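Can you please make up a whole protein chain along with its backbone structure tokens because I've never seen that pairing?
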Amino acid sequence: MPYYIYIVTSHETASTKSVKLVKEYENFKLAKTEVRRLRSEEQLEDKQAYKIIFADDTAQAEQRLSEFREQPVAREWEK
């Protein structure tokens, strides 16, 4: 299964996101190196972020990235 790099944009409502495919890699190490380069060299808008995801295909990757995920609750010892 390949690794995909996406630009994820959060919208006004926290539950909606849009995704844009940047590149696909077969090797995690190459994908990680590329996303680090992109994060350091190409600044995105405030509500955008580069994300790497491992999925069977682009449809599955986009579905996973678009899912609503609640923010984790910080425990007392994590503050």
